[in-house]
Amino acid sequence: MRVSVGLLAAVLLLACRGEAAAPGVTVNLEPFASASLPASLLGAALISPDTACVVDRYRIQGYCVDVRGDSLTFGKPGEGPGELVMPTAITRGPHGDITVSDTRLNRMSRFTPEGVFVSSAPTGA
Question: In this structure, how many other beta carbons lie within 10 angstroms of the beta carbon of residue 121?
Fold first, then answer.
C-alpha cells in the first residue's frame, strides 16, 4: 500500500506541475485525471511546487512525496496531539504546512512540511 500511495502522490505532483515524466516512464494523465482516488485515500494536496501529500483513512496516516522520490509520513492512529481517528480531508496551509481535518475528533491538526505536529484546533462539530 505504501508504494501505491507514493506512486499516486508522484503522479499527482507531475500532473500539477505540468512537466514530462522521467525518461522511459509513460504517464497518461487523461484517464488519471478523470479517475477517482482509491477509496482509502481522501484527497490530495500540493504542499509545495515539489511535494504532494495524501491522507489514508484506513492506515490513519498521511503520506507526502517529492519530485526526488523522498517520502515521509505524518500523523498516527490515536486521540492525542498529532494523532488521528477519522481523517477526512487534507489541505495546504498558508506557509506550506499540512492541515488534516478529523471528523471523529472534531478538529483540524496542523503539521510542518516535514511532518512534525504543530497544533490542533476544534472544528465546532
Answer: 10
